[in-house]
Amino acid sequence: MGGCEAAARTRSIYDLWDDRTVEILAAIYGEELVQELQRYYEAAGKRGRLPGVRGQAENMTLNIHGPWGIHARLERAERVLKELVQELERADGAAQAR
């Protein structure tokens, strides 16, 4: 697989992961862009093309490296998702203590 094909496949896998993550968060927190969904979006969500990036599609911003590359987005997403899990666990523990 050539470099362009590998990059396209990586973007495609990332897009699937991102879409499923948003679906799970929406199922847990509701469809509105509540604070938790907004935190995820700010950390890793897809945006339109960045200035200076050629191309048309939204995924043109999804390089592998760089501050908005896939690796950096996954690292930020992991931190946010771990925080959200900890908050849910604390809320569940508090509810069970009542």
Automatic annotation (TrEMBL):
Protein name: Transcription regulator PadR C-terminal domain-containing protein
Organism annotation: Tepidiforma flava
